[in-house]
Amino acid sequence: MFVSIVIPTYNRAHILGRCIESVLQQDFRNNSYEVIVINDGSQDKTYQVARQYQTIPQFRYFCRHHRGISAARNLGIKNALGEVLMFLDDDCLAGPQWVEKYAKVFQDNEGIEIIQGPCVYPAGNNFFRECTNYLTQVADLQRVIKSDLLEGGMEAKYIGSGNFAILRSTIVSHDLFFDEDLTTREDEDYFRRVAKLKIRIAYIHNPVAHITPFNFVTEARRYFFYGRGESRLQRKWGEYTRLQYDISWRGLRERYRPINSIIMLVIFRLREFYWNLGFLYQKLRDQYLASQN
Known about the structure:
Layout lengths: L2 E7 L3 H12 L8 E8 L5 H6 L7 E6 L4 H11 L4 E5 L3 E3 L3 H11 L5 E3 L2 E2 L6 H17 E4 L5 E4 L6 E5 H7 L11 H11 L4 E3 L4 E3 L5 H22 L11 H5 L4 H35 L1
Parallel strand pairs: 1-2, 1-4, 2-3, 6-11, 7-12
Antiparallel strand pairs: 4-10, 5-12, 6-10, 8-9, 9-11
């Protein structure tokens, strides 16, 4: 089985090298996988970082004008040679058995077409990071369920596009390329399309570690763009029932000290504010553009 790992990147030269190193140091046979980095029009030193690896046979590099993460992933898909395509975000690190674990599940379980793995956030004295850790754990209570897909296994009710694997044949037969009109929330759109096709998603504990710094500026920017993506998602899909995650004072207090719970609750409310702000901005922008046509 030959595996293609697709890594889209944009202005992340400062951490891209660590990501690439993590996938080049796999226990999987070197001649059985390739690493494809798609530079989505970066304006930093991304090319200089990638150039260091271009003498490695399994490393492939493509550069394009900036069109967003969906277009970058699609370029990777179209150039991939593998039977299995794996996706990794440029701000994540894969463990040495990451490729092998996905490949083994596909090899041992005929009928499995998509496998999801988690993203973990290394602990540290950072409330923003801990909020994401907590949200992920709360969310997984609903979106990761027991399943008969794998023996003693689990099933995912979501796709996190920074750590999942899919058969090339599934992409081709169902035209499962990423929607290039979506530069955020593209993974939610992908999940909805997969669910509509009634393709079930196996879940295995095969994590990657998220290493992007967390601070107020990055959080505000990230959730503003999530809100914009959600607006575009709703415009495409209309009414859609989303899983609701209960982030409450009571839930926080069960795990954290009172002062920590207060700080985290404030962060969650700030996230909602910037999400809603981004949603409103995109909705008004779309209405304005429509009125000009």
